[in-house]
Specification:
GTPase that associates with the 50S ribosomal subunit and may have a role during protein synthesis or ribosome biogenesis. By secondary structure, the protein is of the alpha/beta class. The protein has 14 helices and 14 strands.
């Protein structure tokens, strides 16, 4: 840290404001889960009704006195607000309460710092922390006066505050440069997958909806999964096989949350690009959550922010084991397209239905065609067989070979172009009239 603040421990008093408008309202239960996820020992939970936030403390001066008594009585060394505090509010509260004070953004950043495993994840967390910290460099230190003049005492002419800001900017610039390298490596890997025509399915959803549990079950992996917020930060990719589709890459990504700080969205943009570049999004939803609809809306807001709002989505309602007598099923729209799958990743219920729905959605651009081949086109016949595209073969009345094909149109087009055919011209000549 670049500045002196009260030492922060784990024993915390939580402060939640009611009565604010819908745009700034937060969920108290989610706040409790966030604090527990960060490892806080919760000493007290103070709920305050307030219509208008105070510019100085966010809460009224009377409530500041009540909060100070709670801190002293419980010997707490940390106060966490379930709302965004301005730098001046944070400083004023620390001065009055004589302990560390952090807001919702600081709490989420702390959880992210604990969860990051990979080098990239740690860089992204550090970037978000530094950008958050840069707004909280304060002037109230004893060593902030401009450095003294005189022989042997002349400095660079900067206050300590200016020096720290310069160091921050330098470190942020360095991290951004490294992350740009990571982003170009990711894009290179994505280009390779596109060349190989391997579709990408990305798991998205509200934090703790069960994405990692589903990912582990479907891919037979061992990604860290726990009943806590932001258990997964670093994206994980695994290759799976889908019947009638072939190889598919599945990506597990960071969970979204209500009012996800914009700095975090920016910092994790390289990670979230796995979602914005996917062929299909699996939106995992906690079917048993009372705030289900609100969480769905929050996910849509983040998808819109990262440029993924227009991608095809298959909703996956997870945790049906927590619902009364609920069976796994696929829901379809009026055109018969699979739009929703109900399952339990923990109990392995409905995973076959998920595979079926994924294959259908990824295979919407699948060619199903009966063609006839001359005897001289045996090489082409062999290549269709090599792709696993021949569903049935028979002999036509004129003695030519008749093949019933089913394969991705992209595979069909690529094969024919390699053999010197335009796909439309080929179909015209090789389709039974």
């Amino acid at each position: 840290m670049f500045f002196e603040r009260h030492e922060g421990g784990e024993r915390a008093v939580l402060v939640h404001l009611e009565g604010l408008d819908d745009l700034t309202r937060e969920d108290p239960q989610e706040f409790l889960e966030l604090a527990r996820s960060a490892g806080a020992d919760i000493a007290a939970f103070l709920t305050i009704n307030r219509q208008q936030p105070s510019p100085r403390f966010l809460i009224g001066s009377g409530k500041v006195e009540e909060l100070r008594a709670l801190v002293k009585g419980h010997e707490a060394d940390l106060v966490i607000f379930n709302h965004t505090l301005t730098p001046s509010q944070e400083r004023n509260l620390e001065r009055e309460l004589e302990c560390r004070v952090i807001d919702r953004t600081g709490l989420i950043l702390d959880i992210f710092a604990q969860r990051a495993r990979t080098h990239e994840g740690k860089l992204q967390v550090e970037l978000a922390q530094l950008e958050h910290l840069s707004t909280r460099l304060v002037r109230g230190w004893t060593h902030l006066e401009r450095q003294k003049g005189g022989i042997g005492l002349r400095g660079p002419g900067e206050t300590q505050l200016e020096t720290d800001r310069r160091l921050l900017r330098g470190r942020i610039k360095q991290i951004l440069k490294r992350l740009e390298k990571v982003r170009s490596q990711r894009e290179q890997a994505r280009r390779g997958r596109r060349r190989a025509e391997i579709p990408v399915v990305s798991l998205v959803g509200y934090t703790n909806a069960g994405k990692s549990t589903l990912f582990n079950t479907v891919t037979a992996s061992a990604v860290y999964a726990a009943d806590q917020l932001f258990a997964t930060l670093d994206p994980t990719l695994r290759r799976i096989e889908l019947s009638e589709i072939g190889p598919v890459v599945m990506a597990d990504t960071v969970g979204f949350i209500r009012h996800l700080p914009h700095k975090l969205v920016e910092a994790f943009r390289a990670t979230l690009e796995e979602s914005s570049q996917a062929d299909l999004l699996l939106h995992v939803i906690d079917a048993a959550d009372a705030e289900r609809q609100s969480n769905i809306e929050q996910v849509h807001l983040v998808l819109d922010e990262i440029g993924a709002a227009e991608l095809p989505v298959l909703e996956v309602y997870n945790k049906i084991d927590l619902l009364d007598e609920f069976e796994p099923r696929i829901q379809r729209d009026e055109q018969g397209v699979a739009i929703r799958v109900w399952l339990s990743a923990r109990d392995g219920l409905g995973l076959d239905l998920l595979a079926q729905a994924m294959a259908e959605r990824l295979g919407e651009d699948v060619l199903q065609q009966r063609i006839v081949l001359e005897h001289a086109e045996a090489r082409l016949r062999a290549q269709f067989y090599a792709l696993g595209a021949v569903v049935h073969e028979s002999i036509a009345d004129d003695g030519r070979q008749q093949l019933d094909l089913r394969l991705p149109r992209s595979d069909f087009n690529r094969l024919l172009k390699r053999e010197g055919w335009q796909p439309e011209a080929f179909l015209t000549q090789h389709t039974l009239q």
